[in-house]
Predict the 3D structure of the following.
Amino acid sequence: MASFHSRSNSLPTQSHPLMESVQHSLCRLKSSEGTSTSVFANLASLKDLHQGINNLIEMSVSQEEGESWINELLEGSL
């Protein structure tokens, strides 16, 4: 009988804190539309949004590298 190994992926039940931060920055920008919010406040919100997106991208890249290394390790052990 052939042996079959599989791994399952479990999805998180809550959003990552970085994702929540990006969503909060985006909501701040959207809520300031059409109001008298200062240009500096909008630029600060835009900067926060940009920084949050960069952090998500960096986390994604490092996670993919880590998963690649783990997958190679697991495949070698099978």
